[in-house]
Amino acid sequence: MITLFRNPAFNKLFMASIASQLGTVIGNMAFAYYLVDRFASRPSLASTAELMYSIPTLAVFWIVGVAADRFDRKFIAAYSDWIRTMLTFVLLVCVHTDWLFLCFLVLFLRSAVARFFGPAEMGLVQGCLAQEQYVQAAGLNQIVSALFMLFGLSLGAAAYHWLGIEGAILIDAISFIISGVLIAWGRYPEAARIPNGKSRVRDISASLIWKDFAQGIQYIYRNKLLLNLIHGFFFFGIVNGVFAVLPIFVMKYKLSPENYLLHSSLIMIFLGIGFLIGSMLAPVLINKFSKTPVMIAGFFLASLLTLTIGSITSIYAYLGLILLTGVILAPANIVIGGWMPELVAPQFMGKVNALTDPVMMLGHSLALGFVALAFPSWISISWLHYILAICMLGVSIYYFVVLPPLVRNQAKTTQTA
């Protein structure tokens, strides 16, 4: 993993990713606290805000992959950050003047612009690393994600408490500026920046967009292992959607109504500790048991734990099981994160990433919409946990049945080639 940091291009991308994630986590968490605190009788507003982060994927996915594979990925990623900076300042004005509807509209636009960042940045990372470094990079990203779980919700709560919602949004804007500057300063191989050669905006037509989009679908369909791996992403989206609001909801409306700020932060801290431990164990487990068993077992065991967590009434038992869940899930996440770049050719990374995001975000949006409508009138906090457990159990069973023979077939094909 140390060799990754000897790569200056990767260093800048990595630091840019940290800066961008830091501001986003603080801003989003602070905004969620703001909604729950100011509109305590309307929990649906927090779910609606989360919808504004996910629905835009379904609106722009058809053009995102084309942009990432046709234009300079460096400029796409940098300008995505800088445009989000301008929109964040607009959000600041809307919050200051209590224009809640416009706040949601700006969140929608900002999230739509953010969709262009991911495929471009992933393509740059893929082009800067050797294939054997993909899993290492995925492990490193998992550790960073664990750190944000450790401190992200707490930083959001602290920023909201000490700086107010306006101060938290300012931090969000500054982080995008830093991220954009770091990406713009980086030097990347031309094959990573423009894998399919230079294109001009006026050369892009509706027929070309459709052609590229169709090529991405065909590429996924021909790669059976990739196709079946992506099938599970819809359910991962449901899990992410429910969990986006679960830490605040479980403490605010069940376990700790008086101290929900503190204890909802502790959920993410304990989950982050679990992910850190799991990220350190992942290389050992993957080397010993291979990727597929580690991933399947991780989702299966996590589903059983989540089913148990739904019935817990003790804060401390809840936090302990959340930590254990993080330990179990981290290796499974690392397997997926490292597997995708191995399965996708560089010139198709933008198209594939643009097609996988909508699958996940569709599940994410449907879950949040369901929570906004059904909680607390029709479903309880416990049933939110049961939904997570059912999704992870279903994915683990599906992967157990489908993936092992596909992995063996791919290994034979690779050896023959």
From TrEMBL:
PANTHER family: MACROLIDE-EFFLUX PROTEIN (PTHR43266). It is found in: Cell membrane. It holds the Pfam family MFS_1. Keywords: Cell membrane, Membrane, Transmembrane, Transmembrane helix, Transport. Its main location: membrane. PROSITE patterns: MFS (PS50850). It comes from the Bacteria. This is MFS-type transporter YkuC. The chain crosses the membrane at residues 13-36, 48-68, 88-109, 143-163, 225-249, 261-282, 294-312, 318-339, 359-379, 385-407. InterPro entries: MFS, MFS_dom, MFS_trans_sf. Residues 225-417 form the Major facilitator superfamily (MFS) profile domain. The keyword Ribosomal protein does not apply. It is a multi-pass membrane protein.
